[in-house]
# Entry
Amino acid sequence: MKTSKVLKIGFFAAAFALLSIGVYAQPTLPGDYVTFQKVGEGVDTVTVGSRMAYKVAGDPIVASMPATIMNSSIFKWDFSKAVTIKDIAGASTLTEFDASGSPKYYTAKEISVVMPASLGDMTLTINEKSRPVNGTGCEGNDSIANIFVVAKPTLQWPATANYSSCANDAVTINVPVTGYGQWNVEYTITYKPFGGTALAAVTYTATIGANGKKAGTFGFTIPAVNFIGTDGVQGVAGEYSVHVTKLTDRISRKSLDQTLVAAVQGANNTADIPSEAYVVNILPTPTTKKLQHVENMP
# Structure
């Protein structure tokens, strides 16, 4: 209907302008896969509880040796914090090749890892160990990568999640978000005329902010209900409920399993995203009628 269209235009009109805040370039290695080839490869920033993919290329000389001389290598995957190491598809948990003789070594050179529930720094140490048919294998040099575990993104309504305005006034909602830009927000808008029945909710998506923003609280402005549309038609008075259904940031979208980093809804901003809707009541603006002459009483 016309009002929902105007409401959508209002959401996107200001492109969710961010308030000014200090930023820094986030040192996240590009791509879902990270190949570690030297000590100090960099920092991989991940979301708490996410499932991330890592792989290492085996030494080509060792791999080219005939099976009569050399078995397939094994690879150390040694995390400084407790994690769950799975196959790349996430279907099964991997077991060590030889927990007593070669702890932390696995046959897989491509793995996925469910990150810990605690925030902060951790390291991943890898190397390749050859397995000759006869004799003792040779262990390559360690390669160490740094991993930084960060919290899931959050979005909160203002302290009072409702607002009333007249039909020809714009409504601005300042909504803080935390995490790492860019953010993707999915939300619904439900219109209910006063004294009537609510219409079906309409789903919208929006992108907020720019890449490389530091984790912190940002304010972006939503001109949620500017009820003078681009076609010049004034919107209809009633109740408009804005409900956030999904929130991701640049880091959480790296997870191979989005269910692990899905934002949790909670009442009164107790979780990642609010379960309650932000309600905007648009009141009808009276149209002043012409003055009429009233005869004097005798």
Observations:
- Confidence is low (pLDDT under 50) at residues 1-41, 223-234.
- Helices lie at 2-13, 60-63.
- The longest strand covers residues 120-132.
